[in-house]
């Protein structure tokens, strides 16, 4: 029993080269022809892989290459002809040069492989057909059964016809009358064979698909990860899995499926193997690759995002230990390190060998290929292999074995073919090698659950089939191999196109369920932005259509599954004001009730609960750019430093203005440590800060000079003064202690009038005609609430000569914007304030409604908790 490829390989006298070798041979030809598109391997690969696919199609369908490429040249000449006078660019000229030479490249490629007594699979098949009489002389006493074939290329059809003339040979199709009836996709290739050939056995079709009853369930899930969980539930219901196949329409789901298999699944046979691209070893390579993309070659500093990605890899955590990784991450965040160097590793108080080990692995740039990457990758692999337990971590050792094997194969291959490449070219070749290799799982093929991809199901029958990932885009594949040959030219020469690809997948699908009694389809109805990817496969819709028309004797049921344990949307979270909540709230209010915390509650009670009751906070991150908070901090610090020498007196603006540049520079250095500040958006923000400060100082000086001209005395009283005052309020018969706290950015005095001033770099609004009760009901009045709280903390509303206001740096022309009360609020502001505070506290403690998210909150789009 042989596959067709095995038969071809057994009779072809030379060597059939793998895809990577063919690409490398093609690259050597392109360099020999001095094509500018082949100045490096990465540039060549963009079109070399497409060209190789075209060559294989031409040979598989026994098209005369000279004729096809002559036609392609003529088409290109017509497309070039125009009345435009604009000359072509260098890139256009280079591409046209390549385009016109495709036929020459094809001829050279064939000559080169023949000289080396080797071939591609398609070329080998073509050679066999050309020498068929000599080859078949050794099989005169044999009989051939050619079974299960559907889509045969012209070369395969030609070979099949000759083999069927030997002995008592016959062709055994695996098809059904229902598939080939009319113009159904699944029967496309069979109808073509029937039209052109009269092979013995070709007419022997099964006619039971439409009549045999089947139980079909179509299950949609709302998350991709949930498909494996639903699959596990289906398997858990089965008592006997010996005739069950789990088929992956999307083979990337294999890892999820394996890790969620239920306990009743004993023996498992994974026929498809496990792609090395899905292993942690490949992710490790990608993390090294990401580091090399942006590493500073001179200073050998690694960009923080790439460094963190490396630290988060499970192999790295295992090798260096969680403590070392945690401390290193804390160092990066605390010092806001945009780039990490060797010296930063030495700042950690850990085992000396760990920083040195990491230094040896990471801090070198890949310049010489393949030696530099091979050295670094193999060093890590060897170090990691030393700490693995042979029994407990056998799978990881297997991954690393293949990983090291590929690195060594790649080094040998690059050296043999003298391939010129850079970093991206190395990645291309590394990935290309991974495509051709997978880890085989040894299992009993006749026992237990069979796990396979769609292609592995050909000619196999099961009573129960679970097809996971039955989405449009996976079944059938919507991607199509790129080609330089236009569709009309392909059609003329009989080369396959999109129609043939769709027909091929239709056959795979219908043949899979041909003899099954029970089929479960699972697809994801919410997988991404692409509308096609959230649709059930068209074949599922076809089954429903055929059932409705009475063409199939199937029982089809559709379900939608929502898993209860999946995280709820923020809008669905509802919390109670229970004893835990009230106790924590009392602690919070007695310790500190700031304007910010009360405004948070008014803005979104759920946000308040998370931040001030549970103590959750946003995760620390590395900031490369100067955000609004940093801009505000710098402005506050600069003004505090400049005005501090003049507390108790009047500012000397000539001195302040002369010191502005140096103070600003110092505060930026403190706040923006390890960030770029000389270029880009940060430099632009620095110039904005400087402009705002200069403008404020000018306006402030003008105000003070104007007061002096009027005979008024101005004085800075204090800067960044902490304000606080405790109050005990009766709420629902209970005494609640509230300790109001805040910080006044500046307190100054004009004659006997005190001004408490707050600096704001954000938007300032709703300070006029303030109704005191509203500031405790509506978060949009938060600025007014803050200023009224300052009054309560500073003098408990006893001083009629006290003003509170805000300097808004978005509109400095307004200078100090004071809170202005409605006339009917002016005489009893104290009474209204505490009445409003008391009502707010009552709401916070004893509101009967649940604590929920406020959908109108404007800050929620920035909230991590969502």
Mean residue pLDDT: 88
Spans of at least 5 consecutive residues with low confidence: none
- Count of individual beta strands: 22
- Principal-axis shape: elongated
Give the N-terminus to C-terminus distance in angstroms: 59 Å
Largest sheet: 7 strands, parallel
The total count of helices amounts to 35
C-alpha-based Rg, rounded: 38 Å
Oligomeric state of the chains? single chain
What percentage of the residues does DSSP assign to strands (E)?
A: 5-15%
Judged by helices, strands and strand pairing, the structural class is: alpha/beta
Helix-residue proportion: 40-55%
What is the topology, as strand order, of the major beta sheet? Answer: 7-12-6-13-14-5-15
Explain the overall architecture:
Helix content is 48%, strand content 13%. The protein is α/β, with parallel strands linked by helices and 866 residues long. The model has no long low-confidence stretch (mean pLDDT 88). 31% of the residues are buried. The protein has a seven-stranded parallel β-sheet with strand order 7-12-6-13-14-5-15, sandwiched between helices.
